[in-house]
Amino acid sequence: MEKQYYNEEEIKIHVILPWLQKLGYKMDCIEFEKTIKINEGRKTKSIFADIVIYSNSKLETPLIVIDVKGPNEILSKSGRDQVISYARLLPKIAPIAVLSNGKDFHVFQTLDKTRLKDLPKKNELLNDFVSTVLSKNIQDALREEATKELFTIEDVDVFKDLLKKCHNIIRNNEGYDAIQAFDEMSKVLFAKMYEEQFNKGSNRFTTDIFDKTLADLRVNIVQQQFQEILKTKGFKELFPPETKIDLKDRTIRELVRFFEKFDLTLTNFDVKGEAFEYFLGDTFTGGLGEYFTPRNVVEFVVECFSPKIGDKIIDPFCGTGGFLIYAFEIVSEKIRLNEFSDDEKVRWKKVLSDESLFGTDWKYRTAQACKMNMIVHGDGNTGVLQADGFKDVEGIIEEEKFNICFTNPPFGAKETDEKTLNLFELGAGRKSQAREILAIERCLKLVKKGKGLLAIILPDGILNGDRNSYVREFIHREATILGVVGLNKETFEGYNAAVKTSILFLRRKDEIDESVSKNVFMAVCKNTGYSSKGDQISGNQLPDILFDFKNYLKSGRFENIHKYSKIVDLKTSSERIDAERYIDYMELPIIENVEEIKRDSEYNFNDIIKISNDIISDISNDSYLKSFNTKDFKFYKFHELFSPITDDKILEKNVEYIQLGLHGKGRGLFKRETNKGEEIGANKLNFPKKDWLVFSRLFAKNGSFAIVYEEFEGGTLSNEFPTFTLYNEIYKKASLLEYIIFYLTSPQAINYVIRLTTGSTKESRGRFKENQLMDFIIPIPKNEKLFHEICEPILNRRQYIRNINKVVDSLDNISTYLQLNLPNIIED
Question: In whole angstroms, what is the distance from residue 452 CA to residue 438 CA?
Answer without folding.
Answer: 18
